[in-house]
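Hi,

Apologies if this is the wrong queue. I'm a grad student, and the batch job for DUF2116 family Zn-ribbon domain-containing protein from Flavobacterium ginsengiterrae produced an output file that my downstream script rejects. I'm not sure whether the problem is my script or the file. Here is the sequence I used:
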Amino acid sequence: MRTCLECSEKLVGREDKKFCSDGCRNAYNNKINKDSNNYMRNVNNKLRKNYRILSELNVEGKSKATRDKMINKGFDFDFFTNILQTKTGNTYYFLYDQGYRSLDNDYYMLVKKEI
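Support response: The file is valid. Your script probably expects a header line. Output copied below for reference.
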């Protein structure tokens, strides 16, 4: 006898069915996909916020912004997803497809990777 992975009710229907309803499927997936602790949740929130700020400042796909402007919007330079070192020696910090690199006079070049 097969039972629902969420509520353990008996399953009726298709042989590969795992849940008795959409509600149980959603509840089960929400449980397994939630951030496991506060630290992880906080880091993910900072990454999302940084991404939103870069997307807002870089509508055209390539632009400039001052450090003050980024910080005033709540940008945290300690949180990014990866670093790209170019052949010319420039270092880009990325949040998924949105990136930035330091220029002179506290300016930053904002770029977007083509996916």
